[in-house]
Amino acid sequence: MSIATPFEAQKANFGVVAMALLFAALLVLLDGPIWLVKLVPTQDGPVHLAQADLIARFGWGGALQEPAASFYQWNPRIEPNSAIYLLLAALIRLTGDALVANSLFLSLYGLVWIVAAFAASRAETERPLLPALLLLPIAFGVFIHWGFYNFALGIPLFLLFASFWRGLNGRRDALAFVATAVFLAALYLTHITSVVAACLLLAADGMARAVATFERQGTKAAVRRLLRDGLWAAAAALPVLLLIASFLLAYQNIAGETASTEGGIAQIIRRVVAATYLFTFTRWEVIALAPVLGAIVLAGFVALRRFRSGDLLWPVFFVLVVALSLLNLKTGSALLSERLAPYSGIAIVLAIASRQPAPALARALGMAALSGLVGQTAVRAVAYESWAPTLESELAAGRDNPGQSFASADLIAQRDSHLFAWRIRPTLHAAQTAALAGRGVGLSSPLPSTRYFGYFPLQYVEARDFMRATPDWQDTPDVASVAKFRAANHGAPQVLIVSSSDEDGVAFAARFGYGDCRTTETGAREIDVCKVATRLSAAND
């Protein structure tokens, strides 16, 4: 036995322990802030959670009870964003508490991100630490806080698909074909953007392999390889692509909400260059994440100098993502360029992975990336705590009015960095948060309405769709149409929740006949929970 053997074993054991400690530290950084509050502030999250709670209570397609039965109906289609509802409903059944289930989901999401980041990085290099650390800030960037749960979950699953695809190493047998098709179907159940990204990855791999074949064997062999790989990949993706086409055709006449003004070429380039998908609550996040961005720039410069030391997969993928983004396609009001933006960042980082700097510089850049992740976590913790009293007031509104129907109006100043509302609106769906707590029904969200979206497990019944009954509840609420809807629906919505920062929420509610208000001030924000005034409440006032 060699004398060096015990020392080598000790060194290996130390490496395992170090990686385990790093993994635990990363898990604390990503998931720690989640457990500081009852409900993480997200924009659309309450809608998904309320739907999952109904699925957990009544079963998918089961008979609904009042008040949900009067306003909701089951969507007869299985849509491409179904995975999150199955997962959340299962967690609600397991825990018996929708809020705990939501926190568990977000924690599992953070765990999947860590595993996926290391798996994708390890598929590119034997030194996966730096690229994994550069990828992780995407996890709790703006998309998960917008409440795009399905879309956000699709990103780490795409990274796992990329690791799987690299592992095939050019295999094109029957088992690889079936596994690829199944993986694409799993991505479809999260979000169609992750399928688009996976198809772009297949195309990029085919092109990269064709270029390598051209350099070794010439044009004819390269063309044959490109056609063979292209046909194989197209056949594997065909079932999912047909499902996507069916989905797009089914909802082609739904315009969605008012189209974003951020769809121009300049905005598309800004998303790619400035990585705006990383920033959510406040402009301080730019400073917090500056070390990460600096590390990517420096590592990217080194990678350009070592360009030929890696293959062309991720550079070609980056070009394809940017090219498709510049076409400025959209479904309804959703911009494909906005959804593809984080995939451009993934392409840059994984292109760096096989072209890393020398170990000493890579360690320094890894420390910079880790410090940026720490900064992002600190901002998240402060922002979550800042929003906690407001969201708890919404939950209290539901508990105080069990079984009621709710509407909400968000008058909090938008793009206010001081209110931790730079790019999200956590009180936009306050009615859904209250309905969740009180086992009632929220009526004022555009997502379940087939007027705006509707591709969710539960849709508003068209004849009793509050969002159809008003010209535009969120932007230009109309008193007469609300009164007409209430007269036709036994006074629903019975409770109006108004969130405000620089406007009089009580006066707003009074315009619609909700004169009995209870106000809760939560720092610079105010929550008014209002009902129609009765003679008794008027006398008490």
From TrEMBL:
<feature type="transmembrane region" description="Helical">
    <location>
        <begin position="132"/>
        <end position="162"/>
    </location>
</feature>
<protein>
    <recommendedName>
        <fullName>Glycosyltransferase RgtA/B/C/D-like domain-containing protein</fullName>
    </recommendedName>
</protein>
<keyword id="KW-0812">Transmembrane</keyword>
<feature type="transmembrane region" description="Helical">
    <location>
        <begin position="99"/>
        <end position="120"/>
    </location>
</feature>
<feature type="transmembrane region" description="Helical">
    <location>
        <begin position="12"/>
        <end position="30"/>
    </location>
</feature>
<feature type="transmembrane region" description="Helical">
    <location>
        <begin position="174"/>
        <end position="203"/>
    </location>
</feature>
<keyword id="KW-1133">Transmembrane helix</keyword>
<feature type="transmembrane region" description="Helical">
    <location>
        <begin position="230"/>
        <end position="251"/>
    </location>
</feature>
<feature type="transmembrane region" description="Helical">
    <location>
        <begin position="311"/>
        <end position="329"/>
    </location>
</feature>
<feature type="transmembrane region" description="Helical">
    <location>
        <begin position="286"/>
        <end position="304"/>
    </location>
</feature>
<keyword id="KW-0472">Membrane</keyword>
